[in-house]
Amino acid sequence: MDDFEKFYKAAIRFLSFRPRSEKELSDYLAKKKCDPLISKRITDSLKRDKFLNDQEFVRWWVEQRTILKPKASRVIKFELKQKGISKELIDEFFENDESSTSDFDKALALAEKKMVRLGKIEDRQKIYEKLGRFLASKGFDWDIIKEVIDRSLPK
User: Fold this and answer.
1) Residue 114 backbone phi and psi in degrees, to 5
2) Same domain, residue pair 60 and 88
3) pLDDT tens digit string along 100-126?
4) Based on the domain organization, do 92 and 119 belong to the same domain?
5) Domain of 22?
6) What is the pTM of this model?
7) Would you say residue 69 has pLDDT above 90?
8) Same structural domain for residues 85 and 112?
9) Are 22 and 16 in contact (CB under 8 A)?
10) How many CB atoms lie within 10 A of CB 46?
11) Phi and psi of 154, rounded to 5°?
């Protein structure tokens, strides 16, 4: 088995777990000590065969971070940038995506779920602090956090 075939099979196995960005695949192949020219051939082949597509990856990543692990849009954009997605592609996706939920709606949904567990706490200030820290850990801005907490906390 030649190097191309060996690394191609490794790339397919790597892609079988979840969608990946081109950069993730390149980094993976580099870590496996794949020659850069072979890595480029593999990447081109996988793109041509539609196994590798950064636009689809962005759509999938945003969907995961909206439904399964809700986070603020700015955190999602940062994660995508770390995955090697170009700023232009990220901006284009967020400008054209009508299905994405606003940060306020995501934070409100998270707060409502969290309030079920925090409802047993008597001290309003303690709930305010815990809910604020929780939402901040998800990357939401303070003005959104404050508005969501004010709406979520019983008077």
Assistant:
1) -70, -35
2) yes
3) 678 999 999 999 999 888 877 788 888
4) no
5) 3-48
6) 0.84
7) no
8) no
9) no
10) 19
11) -65, 145
Report pLDDT for 118. 81
What are the distances in angstroms from CA 82 to CA 20, 22, 105? 12, 12, 25
Tell me the one-letter amino acid at 114: K
Residues composing the chain: 155
Cα–Cα dist 20/53, whole Å: 8
Say whether both 19 and 36 belong to one domain: yes
Token representation of residue 73: 């849009």
- Cβ-contact 6, 42 below 8 angstroms: no
Residue 62 CB neighbours (<10 A): 23
CB neighbours of 97 closer than 8 A, spacing ≥ 6? 62
Question: Residue 83: which CATH number?
Answer: 1.10.10
Q: How many domains does the chain have?
A: 3
Rounded to a whole number of angstroms, the CA Rg of the chain reads 21
- Given a contact cutoff of 8 angstroms between Cβ atoms, the answer to whether 26 and 43 are in contact is yes
CA-to-CA separations, 155 to 98, 125, 149, 151, in angstroms, rounded: 34, 12, 11, 9
